[in-house]
Specification:
Elements: H1 4-20, H2 28-43, H3 45-57, H4 64-80, H5 90-109, H6 114-121, H7 148-160
Helix pairs in contact: 1-2, 2-3, 3-4, 3-7
Length: about 160
């Protein structure tokens, strides 16, 4: 169940920012985006962490739904089937990969289906890659219900594979 206090706090912070910054307006569309982001990060934290990792790395603009469909779903699939190897100790690398895949699958087990995530992500108004920016909605700053350790772990996995 969605925690109403979390969204209330996020909305209050965004409104306060609008009061202090004349260039930022907290509109009804931005409130709807913030609510949807809260729902996504509450019900699909692992999917959302993967989307954040892809969005941070991406040079693309546009909707988060399109970014997830073009890159995020493959990123998630790659993570769950990761078979990286290393020049180092093969056995320890295999153990680390197996452990990470098991952890990723366990986290995914708590979430609803991928189709439901994509459906909620695609609701209007569109969540945009630009909504992460400091001069826009700053979705990450209002994402205190999204576990930063999970996001860091996903980003670290992505860095290690390249």
């Amino acid at each position: 169940m969605l925690s109403k206090p979390k969204y209330s706090i996020q909305r209050a912070l965004a409104r306060r920012r609008a009061d202090k910054n004349n260039g930022f307006k907290f509109t009804r569309d931005r409130a709807r985006k913030l609510l949807r982001w809260t729902i996504l990060s509450e019900f699909w934290p692992f999917h959302t962490a993967c989307l954040v990792a892809v969005a941070k790395k991406s040079k693309e603009t546009g909707t988060l739904a399109n970014l997830y469909e073009t890159k995020g779903a493959k990123f998630l699939s790659d993570m769950l089937t990761d078979k990286r190897s290393s020049d180092g100790d093969q056995a320890s690398m295999t153990d680390a990969n197996t452990s990470f895949r098991a952890e990723a699958r366990r986290l995914m087990g708590f979430e609803e289906s991928d189709e439901a995530f994509v459906r909620v992500l695609g609701f209007a108004p569109d969540l945009l890659v630009e909504d992460f920016d400091e001069d826009k909605l700053m979705l990450l700053r209002h994402s205190f219900n999204l576990n930063p350790a999970m996001v860091a772990r996903v980003v670290a996995w992505d860095r290690a594979r390249w």
